[in-house]
Specification:
The structure is a homodimer of 229-residue chains.
Chain A (H helix, E strand, L loop, with lengths): L4 E2 L2 E4 L3 H12 L4 E5 L7 H4 L5 E2 L8 E2 H12 L5 E4 L3 E6 L5 E5 L4 E4 L1 E4 L29 E2 L2 E3 L12 E3 L4 E2 L7 H20 L3 H8 L7 H6 L4
Parallel strand pairs in A: 1-9, 2-3, 2-10, 3-6, 10-13, 12-14
Antiparallel strand pairs in A: 4-5, 7-8, 8-9, 11-12
Helix pairs in contact in A: 1-3, 1-4, 4-5
Chain lengths: 229, 229
């Protein structure tokens, strides 16, 4: 076994929830590797409705899953995430130093402080006979993650699962009133990134808020990370 | 005093949070009137940074407040909201039949089952010397609405305030971990609309979920409301 790649965060799933997680983590100065069982980004958006228009993405009267994916991939480019397509996560194990060892069915294994499950409904539990994406289920329950309604139970502030350091956002997370909306996944990613900042940079949440919640329209710090001229 | 206009919902504030509330309410088959003290839609987006790019709206590597506003105004058109610009809300009072009477400083008064405060931070409480928007504060506290950190306290599932029928979304609502992000306001609007559906259409929340949470990419019902051919 080759030595694991050390990074800040591993995002599992490259659909809208995973991509916007990479973006929000990037703003919080957290480097990401992204693992997805499919050969390219998009998740359900491209697997199920690549050419089918969606009408409820804020700011778009209509947009295809394919175009939304392309736009989100473009948006994360300043943060240069490392992609691992065609890979499945086999196991996530807490190490003595508090980091998480993520093993895949490919060559890569990764060592990170934060793991974000953004793999979509049906990906986290085996659903025999379910559509496309459930052909590559993530055995989250086997990793000790509490599940409910087919999603990982998270608190609504930090979006952390029952396992410290493992977060969940998007259709694969579960909380009171959870809507399987892409717009909700974007909010969940933003909230998660605040808590991930605390784990990765060690400062308290309030400090994280002060330093982490800046606005891209005014912060030269964030604009530098985004490569804005 | 002229007789009040009867409608389903009154949205106070025509910034991104208010506009996307109109959209989500429209999908739930709830007709809206929109009140804003400014002469046009946009809220803080156009008042404070009309030409300044924002970099963290999902799907846009950069977008001005002006362009985001125009896109959201376009997105609500199928639902034909009635606009009341240059108007301030003076009072919201619960009526014997459970509806809310909204009085403005203009000619219009409105009678609705749902009121959504989407008026932005600083709009809900008087902040002497604050910038622009606080020159037209909404005396929410006088209406018996519990406030915290300059926002109306809401629960994180329904986004209802301490006053039944009065909801709050966007920068002017307050809950654990609240981020003053536009992306969060979009999620809050979607959650609020589920609860508003219950109030307006009388069915239980689970029924509302079944009938209300459909996907615009697949539901002919929603596509008809949107005017999709």
């Amino acid at each position: 076994m080759t030595a694991p790649i050390e990074t800040d965060a591993v995002v599992v799933g490259a659909g809208p929830a995973g991509l916007f997680s990479v973006f929000q983590l990037g703003l919080a100065n957290i480097r990401c590797h992204v693992i997805d069982a499919q050969p390219a980004a998009g998740g359900q958006c491209t697997a199920f409705y690549a050419e089918k228009p969606i009408f409820d993405i804020p700011g778009f009267t209509r947009i295809t899953g394919q175009e939304l994916t392309q736009r989100l991939v473009e948006q994360v480019k300043p943060f240069a995430p490392q992609w691992h397509f065609g890979s499945r996560v086999i196991n996530v194990a807490l190490q003595d130093d508090g980091r998480l060892l993520v093993r895949t069915d490919g060559e890569a294994s990764l060592l990170a402080r934060v793991v974000v499950l953004a793999a979509g409904a049906g990906a986290l539990v085996q659903k025999p006979g379910g559509p496309g994406i459930s052909a590559s289920p993530i055995p989250a329950q086997d990793w000790g993650i509490a599940m409910q309604d087919g999603g990982a139970v998270v608190d609504m502030v930090r979006f952390v699962t029952s396992q410290p350091g493992i977060f969940a956002v998007g259709d694969g997370c579960s909380y009171a009133g959870k809507l399987a909306y892409i717009a909700s996944a974007f909010h969940e990613a933003a909230m998660m990134a605040q808590a991930a900042f605390l784990l990765c940079h060690g400062s308290g949440l309030e400090d994280a808020r002060r330093s982490g919640v800046q606005y891209t329209s005014t912060s030269s710090n964030l604009q530098r990370r985004l490569g804005v001229q």
